[in-house]
Each structure stands twice: as C-alpha cells, then as structure tokens.
TrEMBL record:
PROSITE patterns: ANK_REP_REGION, ANK_REPEAT, SAM_RMT2. It comes from Scleroderma citrinum Foug A. One of its GO terms (cellular component) is nucleus. It comes from the Eukaryota. Transmembrane segments: none annotated. This is RMT2 domain-containing protein. InterPro entries: Ankyrin_rpt, Ankyrin_rpt-contain_sf, RMT2/GAMT_Mtase, RMT2_dom, SAM-dependent_MTases_sf. The keyword Transferase applies.
Amino acid sequence: MAHTPSDPQEGQQVGDEFSDVEDIEDIEEINTLTELGTTLIQAILEREPLVNIQDLIDAGAPLWFQDNEGISPLYAAAYVANEKLVKIFLADGAVWNAVDNFGNTAGDIALSMNDEGIYNLIRDAGIRSELLLTALSSGSEPPQSSSSLIISDGDISAVGSTDAFLASNLQYTVDAHGQEICLLKLEDGSTVGVMMGWEREIMSRTVDELCSDHPRLEGGLRVLNVGFGLGIIDGFLQRLPKPPSLHVIIEAHPGVLAHIREQGWHQRPGVKIMEGKWQDVVQRKEFLDLGRFDVVYTDTFAENYYELYKFFMLLPNLMAGPEARFSFFNGLGATNALFYDVYSRVSECHLSNIGAHVSWSNVQVDGDRDKERWGETRKYFTQPLYHLPIAQLKQTV
C-alpha cells in the first residue's frame, strides 16, 4: 500500500527525516563558521598580512564570532593595535559592544593600552549605532537589537521592567553603619540597591550644581523631581538656604509612596506629591496647571534609556526658559568604561537635539571604604567616576 503525506504516521516520519537533515546542515554550517572565525582571530593575533585576513572574510569568516574566551576579531585587532583592521571591521558591521569572559570590550582593551585612536574609533561607532537605533524607534517601540545595550535589554525582572518593579516589594532598612538603604529582592534571592547611601555625595553635588548659583534661588525655586527612592536629593533640595517655593515629587511605587507618607513629606510646606508613572502624571491637568520649573531632576528605577529619551523630549515644556536647569542620575552603562562613555555622549547628543547645552563634572565614587561598605548592592555602578550632567536650554533669538 502506498502511503501519502496525509498518513499521520508517515507524515511524522517524513517530517523527522527532513528535520534531521536540517539539523545536520545547521551543525555543518556552525562548524564551518566556527572554524573560519577561529582562524580569522588567530590570523589577526599572529599579525598576518591584510590580504590573508581579507581572504578569510571573503570566505565567510563572521565578524560577530567570539571564541571560547569571548575574543572577537575586533577585540583581537584592538589587542594588536591594528587601527586599519579596526576601521575595516567596524565599517563591515563588527559588534562594538561584545564582551569577553571577563566583561571587557575591544574598547576596554584599547583603553588599557592607552591607544586613544582605536578607542575613539570603537566609541564613536557605538555612539553612531545607538543614535541610529533611537532614531529608528522614534514614535514607536524601540527595536530589539543585540548590538544595543541602551535602548532595551529585554530584562523582564523587577530590575529591567517597570511593571515588574512597581509590583515588587521594597525593603527600607538601616545597615550596620547606620545608613538608611532601600533594597529590591530578586527572585534568585539576591538584592539590588534601589538607592544606597554611597549616592549621597552624588546627590549633594548635583543639587549644588543645579541650585547654588541659580539666579532664582533667593526667591525660592520651583523644582520637579521624578523618582523619590530614599529621598536623598529631595532632602538636599529642602535644605537649600531658601527652600523651594514649589517642590513637586512624582512617584509610582506603592512601597515608596507609603515610605513618603511615613516620613511626613505630604505635610512639608511647598511639597506636592503626585502619584503614578511620570508618563501619565505629566498629561494630567493638575500637573499642567502647575506651570514650568526652575530645576528638573529624574532618577527612576527599572526604566530603559528609551524612557529617559522620551523624558528629554518633554524638557522644553517643563523648563522655565534658559535659566532653568536639568539633570538625571547618570548610571547609563556604568558597569563598563566604554559603555559609560558611549551612553553619556549619546544622552548629550539627544539633549542637544532638543536645544539644550550640557556641561559635565566628575564625582569620585571609588573609595575602598565605600566598595566594602556597599558590596554586592552596587553592581549597577562600578565606575570610579560619576559623570554629572547639567543641561540648560539654549537662548533663542
């Protein structure tokens, strides 16, 4: 009896056989690409002539390939200080932010060797990539791309997802050193600091840069802060020589709002607590009726850069002219020197696009005592210097 594909049993057998053939072909392709990629990296490290390396690329050696140690062709080119190869690889689409098994990128290798030329090439490629991805995402959800760490990282935990964070439980406690801390406990049992005491110096410097010589300080500034956390920056704002005449705090997390009430912030003169996500609050008539602000600051948790970018777009309608000042907690990519540099510059480009000038200052945050003091809860910021941005709208004619 002849069987047709409609026979369930035979159809399954034919499908399995076809699948097996596809699997074999996939394995063979993977093996070929792995061999070509490995050979390409070895050729670069052995400083073979450019013609040999180009032959391997023409033969299909993938520039995205990483060996068992996480070394990529771009990484190898940076290691042997071959600027010409770095330019070729970046032009052909090499992944600028690929990390090795120790978390180092090709840019980090160049930086460690004081190779400013190669470092700048890789950094600038990263800036172009991120600016392009943000432009492509304008007016829609950001595209998912493995080459971007700033737009969206696909994390749906309470660290990477706003909705998951807002549904999470926070713990306000006091550590062994007597400092108040706010912790988020993750599903794996680990904890992440939503706000920690080591940020206090950053917040103090930020308020100083935003307010100390502000021309409207003596009359009482109108300030907006998005994201309360421990209320560190709000505390510094309240301790200005002249407290703010209006101090608006936008906060969405139920646990933080409960903490705000316990601390009596609702009763403070001039303080107005607005509950909800900032994306919703800024559209409410109650908020719009408040007018514009002399100082605007934002420090939200579990929001990706795309949300910060959207906040940038609102600034011309939030800031009270060229004398008004804006800052944000700049933790963008702060687990890696290259990422931190790239994303700081990307944010400056986007602020420039809305008509703002950005000035930068550095805050030292790498004291040995602090590292020991805050331990694992400071994983999200490992750089020795904090880059503090202050933006002002440019004067229009």
